[in-house]
Amino acid sequence: MNPLISVQDFTNQAAESFNIVYCAPPSHSQSSFIPGSYIYHISENTEEFIKDARSIEFDEEERTIICYDDGDFSYACKAYWGFRATGVDEVRILIGGLKACQEIGLELDEGEPPEITRSNHPYLPFNNSIVITKEEFAKKSVYCQQILRANSLPFNLLDARGNMILQAQLMKNLETNGITFSTGKSTIVHGKAACLLGLLLTFLGEKSVSVVIDDTEGILASSKGKAKKRELSFHMVPDGGEIPDSGATRSPRKSGEEKHYKLPVDDKNETKKPEPGRSNTICCNACSLF
């Protein structure tokens, strides 16, 4: 399923078809919202975030969940991965969020939407192969997945009209900026913009994407100087602001011809084998570390 939906496609369907969720930082107070929305305050604490994700309830659970924020994807992306990890397949992010709704003149309700409903006790399963904590990320000495590190994007994701750029253009931009990944291969994304890059890979059709929900800077610090890390840099949309810290589908992609996209790095373009006996090795010789 395409993880994104345009405002036009959203408004062409009955609001009753969706569970609409406005995603906001903790203690955020909202003055306007899409009618029928619930507000979901996204905790910055990983333990609390997972607990909240496992506790959320909807009266109509079969409806597609629409996540939106003020327009930069940051909080909506994190909520998206939380829903995916609890087994929700029908979840999409509204392109451009509240800002796009205001620009096209969509009628909004004033005030703050009601808080999203949570059960007293977490009851939903949480798939930690989709959303990974930094502790789980650090446990493995070897990874068979390709590893991508994302901190920010050097190009806009929206065009001049506020629409998501086409997949072909996104692929071209990734290639132009040297972003390397093998299509059809399981991928783990970590870093400050992991949730966003994971979403983009899913948008491009990748079927096995996982994200590390925590900042992994401390985990990698011990290996700096021994092997230079590959790193992406992401700005979001027209103002070029950085993405705040902030999502994977579970089924493997059918085998097929792989395409490779290259990312310039400081070290030589080679994959280093893990050192024997080293418990915090990040990748094996089949992996690429960004």
TrEMBL record:
Keyword Transferase: yes
Coiled-coil ranges (or none): none
InterPro entries: Rhodanese-like_dom (IPR001763), Rhodanese-like_dom_sf (IPR036873), TST/MPST-like (IPR045078)
Residue ranges of domain Rhodanese in the record: 14-110
Region (Disordered): 236-278
One Pfam family here: Rhodanese
Biased composition (Basic and acidic residues): 254-276
The keyword Transport belongs to this UniProt entry's keyword annotation: no
Molecular function as annotated in GO: thiosulfate-cyanide sulfurtransferase activity
UniProt-listed SMART domains: RHOD (SM00450)
This protein's UniProt keywords: Repeat, Transferase
Gene Ontology CC: one annotated term: mitochondrion
Protein name stated in the entry: Rhodanese domain-containing protein
